[in-house]
Amino acid sequence: MNLRPDPTFHATPKMAMEAPAETLAFTLMLSPNGSQPDGLAVVDVDPTSDTYGQIVHQLIMPNKGDEFHHFGWNACSSALSPLTGHAFLERRYLIIPGIRSSRIYVIDVKEPLKAKIHKIIEPEEVFAKTGYSRPHTIHCGPEGIYVSTLGGGGEDGTDGPPGIFIMDCETFEILGRYEMDRGKQDKHYDFWWNLPRDYMVSSEWGLPPQFENGIVPEDLLSNKYGHSIHFWNLRERKNVQTIDFGENYQMALEIRPAHDPAKDYGFCGVVVDTTNLQGAIFTWWQKDDGTFEAKKTITIDPRPEKAENLPPLLQGFEAVPPLVTDIDLSLDDKYLYVACWGMGEMHQYDVSDPMNPKLTGKVELGGIARRANHPNGKPFVFGPQMVEISRDGKRVYWTNSLYSTWDNQFYPDDEGGQMVMAHVGENGGLTLAEDFYVEFPKGYRSHQIRLEGGDCSTDSFCYPSV
Amino acid sequence: MEPISSATALWGAVVVSGLYHGVNPGMGWPLAVSAALMERKPRALPRALGMLALGHLIAMVAILLPFSAMLILVEYQREIQIGAALLVIALGIYLLINRRHPRFLARVHPRKLVLWSFLAAMAHGAGLMLVPIYLGICKTVETDTGHAAADQLMQGNATIALAVAVAHTLAMTAAGGALAFGVYRWLGLEFLRRSWFNLDVVWALSLILVGSVALWTVH
Fold first, then answer.
1. Are strands A279-286 and A292-300 parallel, antiparallel or unpaired?
2. Does the domain made of A13-451 have the CATH classification 2.60.40.1180?
3. Phi/psi at A320 (nearest 5 deg)?
4. Would you give the DSSP letter of residue A330?
């Protein structure tokens, strides 16, 4: 407990942008076949350092088969909320769930180069206290640490719907389920919120049998993955509205609200439109009467390709779908980055007008049947996937694994893990940095990135930028 | 002339405790800044302050009035004063040991500022801090009234309770309002982060101090 608020907590997104640049990144390493324990890599991202672009520390876990995916901080700028009146938490622990094992690690990174395990919550405890399984997204908020899950109870996670549970932000005790009234929500993926306006938005991937052993083509073609987003009264813990994008909009994944809480809109990425293989972004917004609406504002076309160049899964379509698997919004709410994991592209859209996004930058790297090399001449396996933006908005980092079994289906011949970075131009545009290319140790793929001191998908701000 | 000077000191304590509560971000002034910024209207600031003040006032009255009713038992006055002092000390010790923040405050809707302010004052023992001071004031007044009729005494004590609560809340609102307005107008939100000190220990010690002084002066 500090006497003053943690210096990495910021009242507004603008103040966070003006804070010192990141010098370290934390990136998850996963063993795709569970033959080795997963780990946390600490990457030097300080261009003035001798070890720039290198993994300077690795923390390997004591268990196998966790499958690391997303993770987050124990505390962020949301601690400056005027409602809690208690801003003295430290941004010190990374909460890392195993999406396959349901085990949760709490890692102390006060000294990043000596990162150590602080606590392990075993799967049995998660099951017993929440009835949920397969923990995923982490956000710190008004009542502690919120964790979304992808599975319900039982062996295959289909006994009851998945949901969100809350952990104490100091003791890391699991407190219990979040939902009082979940309405129509029966699948889960991501969630985020607008704290002063007191609403939360959640999204849907699919149930564990639909993803754990790989994508189920029959389920996809019969539109059985998630295609709705849910709006919640955050403090009443009640689903107040469900918006169905349409059943062809399969897998509504990342939720990115505007960082400035005075703005009442946000975005959601849809992996694939099964009618035409397009990727799509929806803009959702709150209306004056408090209800919500959503509209498709970006579409990305598939690329035609000969069947012989495609993995078996896609041969029948003779096309490479963009597969929008991750999106991220810069802290000034200006640029939305869209990872097209199938096509092997990272797009940058100017979303200053959230209803009319404009494509302002694009990088080609990896990709199905394209395999574009990095400008340094080295390969980039799979495609651009988990993306994270520096607080000042000038650097965009990304890695390449989606989910072990899905990587194997879409890229049956690829193996490995890389992390790269692109510079953002003064007036938009995206250029890969030749001198930043992190190769992960043999046998490991890489997933989500967190930047020291917070980034564009962790912190929730309680005051508008003025 | 001793009673007058001690009465002045006690009223001074009522005002000082108000200023102290007012500058503490935990009693809500950042909410007034946030309201004005979110609504993009400067007048949202005084409105939020008014709601916070009302909640605080209700909390003060809710704690003080029962004590004023108890004072009707004139022969137990000393015991009541000792009891109140011990209660305040006990809360201070409890807050020293249990440093966890009351989580339920985060469950109040951001617009329900009266309720939030009431609960925040209750949870932190803001009203209880005033009780020993209030009892002291009642005692200085009583020396004049002597053996007044019970109903008069009760009415007098209730009036004092209201006066203490109002004076305290006015001081609190003035201090919090000055800070909120200063931050909104000139200082900026950076001030919030730089000036926000962890007052938990100081607050708990204040309760113990007030209780101890009260115990010391009971005679």
1. antiparallel
2. no
3. -105, 115
4. -
pLDDT confidence of residue B73? 75
Residue B16 burial (10 A CB sphere; 0-12, 13-18, 19+): middle
Cα within 13 Å of Cα(A48), Cβ side: 3
Which chain A residue lies closest to B37 (C-alpha atoms)? Answer: A464
What torsion do the CA atoms of A273, A276, A277, A278 make, to the nearest 10 degrees?
Answer: -70
- Of A279, A184, A295, A299, nearest to A245 (Cα)? A295
From chain A, the residues in CB contact with B198 under 8 A are 1-4, 88
Residues of A with a Cβ under 8 Å from any B Cβ are 1-5, 9-12, 15, 80-88, 142-144, 170, 195-198, 235, 261-262, 462-464, 466
Q: Which of B23, B29, B37 would best serve as a mutation to test chain A binding (most A beta carbons within 10 A)?
A: B37
Is the Cβ pair A463, B109 closer than 8 Å?
no
Interface contact A463-B99, CB threshold 8 A: no
Selection from A320, A316, A318 nearest residue A410 by Cα: A320
The region, left, alpha or beta by phi > 0 then psi within -120 to 50, assigned to residue A323 is left
Does residue A183 contact residue A239 with C-beta atoms inside 8 Å? yes
Q: How many CB pairs under 8 A join A and B?
A: 90
Phi, psi of A162 (to 5 degrees): -80, 165
* Cα–Cα distance for residue pair A402/A420, rounded to 1 Å: 15
Q: Check CB contact under 8 Å for A4 and B192.
A: no
- From residue A286, how far is each of A185, A194, A333, A350 by CA, in Å? 19, 11, 16, 21
Residues of chain A with pLDDT under 50: none
Per-residue model confidence as pLDDT tens digits over A347-398: 999 999 999 999 999 999 999 999 999 999 999 999 999 999 999 999 999 9
Under a CB-based contact definition with an 8 Å cutoff, are residues A306 and A320 in contact?
A: no
For residue B198, give both structure tokens. 């962890």
Q: Which residues of chain B have pLDDT under 70?
A: 1-5, 74, 142-150, 219
What pLDDT is stored for residue A441 in this prediction?
96
Which tokens go with A405? 């079994």
For helices B150-182 and B29-39, angle between their N-to-C axes, nearest 10 degrees: 50
CB contact under 8 A, A86 and B101: yes
- The domain ranges of chain A are 13-451
**Chain B residue whose CA is closest to A466:** B37
ipTM above 0.95, yes or no: no
Alpha helices for A172-259 (secondary structure H): 208-211, 217-221
Q: Which of A12, A83, A235 lies nearest to residue B189, judging by beta carbons?
A: A12
Q: Do B30 and A235 touch (CB under 8 A)?
A: no
Q: Which residues of A touch B105 (CB under 8 A)?
A: 83-85
Q: Spell out a b/e string for A260-273, using b for 16 or more CB atoms within 10 Å of the CB, else e.
A: bbbbbbbbbbbbbb
Chain mean position to CA B115:
15
**pLDDT attached to residue B118:** 94
The dihedral region occupied by A48, where left means phi > 0, alpha psi between -120 and 50, and beta the remainder, is alpha
User: In this complex, do A9 and B27 lie within 8 Å of one another by their Cβ atoms?
Assistant: no
- A293: how many CB neighbours lie within 10 A of its CB? 12
**In this predicted structure, what is the pLDDT of residue B146?**
54
Whole-number Å distance between alpha carbons of A200 and A164: 12
